[in-house]
Every structure is written in C-alpha cells, then in structure tokens.
Design brief:
The protein is mainly β. The protein has one domain: 6 Propeller (Neuraminidase). Helices cover 0% and strands 39% of the residues. It contains no helices and eleven strands. The strands form three sheets. Strands 7, 8, 9, 10 and 11 form a five-stranded antiparallel β-sheet that branches. Strands 3-4-5-6 form a four-stranded antiparallel β-sheet, with no helix packed on it. Strands 1-2 form a two-stranded antiparallel sheet. Strand 3 and strand 4 form a beta hairpin.
C-alpha cells in the first residue's frame, strides 16, 4: 500500500503524563485542548513551555493547531494555527525564529503529498508570544 494513502482508524487522546523516577509512578497532568497523535505532531520546548505543532487527530484527520503547555501552571492554551494542516516533519528554533520543515499536507482529506518546504515564523516574545502568524513565510 502507498503510505500516502494510509488512513488509520486509530483515535488520538488528549492525555499528558509525567513520570517520577524516584517513586516509579506516573502522574496525569492537564489534558491537551485537542487530541493529536503522539508520534505525528511536532514538539518543541520554547521559553520553558512545550509546544505541540500540527499532527493527526481522530481518524487520521490532519491538524493545523498549535498548543502550548505551561508546566508551572499545568495548563494548556491554543495559539494561532498553522497556515495549513500538517503531520510529521521537523520543527526547530533559532534565537528569533521557529522553523517547520517537511511532513504531509492535505487540503481535501484525500490528496496527501509529502512536502519538503519550510515554514518560518518570527518568535514574538512576551506574555502572549505567537508563532506562524501573518509574519510566517514559506521558503
């Protein structure tokens, strides 16, 4: 089967856990706002917060959502979405930009090309920094 045609029947979950190696226990933390697959979204730590970018939701529906987890407050918030839903790929940062390269795109749910383009977004720091906003550009 062509991997670009694969549409799994799995269900994503919103759960977040932290492991305590001293106690050998898992602690459930605040649920994500939107469930996405743990292997098809991209994760980045920025300013002590965890960003979950894109990915796949229930029934293999691609996500454009960007979610931020604050471990100090044990709270999630939704950030500005990606310009287009994307799963897979690679996310990284420099001192002033976040980059998202590659992955799979879809506009209609059936055509799922694998791409090698890079989106770049300036990091606007402050209490409500944002990524992939109007300043985002594709290369």
């Amino acid at each position: 089967m062509d991997a670009t045609q694969c549409r799994g029947a799995y269900w994503a979950h919103p759960y977040l856990f932290r492991y305590d190696p001293r106690r050998e226990e898992w602690q459930r933390l605040a649920d994500m706002l939107f469930a996405v697959s743990h292997i098809e979204s991209q994760v980045l730590v920025l300013d002590g917060k965890i960003l979950v970018v894109g990915g796949t939701g229930d029934r293999d529906v691609f996500s454009a959502r960007v979610q931020e987890y604050d471990p100090v407050r044990d709270r999630w918030r939704q950030m500005k979405a990606l310009p287009q839903a994307r799963k897979g790929g690679v996310v990284w940062q420099t001192s002033d930009r976040v980059y998202f390269n590659g992955g799979q795109l879809t506009s209609d749910g059936t055509d799922r090309p694998v791409v090698a383009d890079t989106m770049a977004a300036p990091i606007r720091r402050g209490p409500w920094y944002s990524l992939f906003t109007r300043g985002a550009r594709r290369r």
